[in-house]
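During the first year of the project, the team set up a workflow for recording each protein of interest as an amino acid sequence followed immediately by a discrete structure-token representation. This format lets reviewers and collaborators read both layers of information side by side without switching files. As required by the reporting guidelines, we include two representative entries from the current panel. The first entry is reproduced here exactly as it appears in our internal archive.
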Amino acid sequence: MYSWKSWHDSRHRLALYAGACLAVGAITGLDIWGTYHFWAAWIAVTTNPRLKLWDPSFDAWAWGINVITELMLPVVVWSSLVLGVTSVGREDSSGAMTFILTRPQKRWRIVWDEWALSVAEISIILSMLVLGMVPFLFLISRIYVSFSGLILPAVVAVAACLYGLTQFLTLLTRSSAKGLSATIAVILFYLFLPSALDDWWHISWPSKVTDLSLSVFRPEWDGLPSIHWEIAMLWVIVGLIFPFLSQWLIERREV
């Protein structure tokens, strides 16, 4: 029942954000497609024998994937925060939590059904960035198109972690606004505190940990894609902690 309510409340956001990401991906692909043809024309008229041997299709593909990957970070943050603050924790401020908790359903399903739905929606939103660009990559070369979606699982793992954190803090504070503020504070501490420790007290390991954890947004394309799958699995493990914490909170919530 509550999962249907969550879908009803979030479907318009899903359509809006997915459409925007599809448009951005298509614009990026169009730019790459035009640049590729400029490179091809340059190779056709050049007299440099080394340039004659250059195949720009891989460079065009790698450039496009890097651009899309850079765009994914703000999309992850925005979509996770927006869907997180509209999760079950906001029902406290609206006065509907008592009604929801007294319905004939298991409380843990409220958290996990909503979490699964939101992660699926975020996955769709992120995949639209790649999907909008893929047709233009296909026109350039079919060889590398199949590798274009390899970055998605790792990025979705980060998004699931961030959404779970927002859902938990919204439940903990019993307020969407307070939960959002707390999540943003955690993000800012995670991003800037390690650099401050390195600059002020020369403690460098927190900064290295932060850079390594965010390396999923900086894939290395050297012949074949090399994704930090170990880091992605760590994000998955950490991300699963927050739904369990949310489940623990909601199961002990009195009505």
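The second entry, processed by the same pipeline in the following quarter, appears below.
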Amino acid sequence: MLDVREHRQVLSALRETRGRALGDHRREIDEQRRNWRRARGARPAVHRVVLERERQEMQELRRQHRRSLAQNRWLVALADRLQERLRSAR
């Protein structure tokens, strides 16, 4: 059987071990919370980046559409001229 001094030493060591484990656990939880807050805080910025990229893509699509419309108008005008020449040549 343990005497009182040995018993206290064993209990002290046990408490110290549990205390260290609890401290490590709390640090891990705090780190996860910090990471989560950081990620949650970053979401609006990421969302803005995605929206900005989509806006730029839409602008580029609009430019391409305008170029296509201008080209189509030019092709229609050319087709009309060719039709007129064809009619006058007959």
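For the second entry, the following points were noted during internal review. The CA atoms of residues 38 and 63 lie 38 Å apart. The mean pLDDT is 87. Both points are flagged for discussion at the upcoming steering committee meeting.
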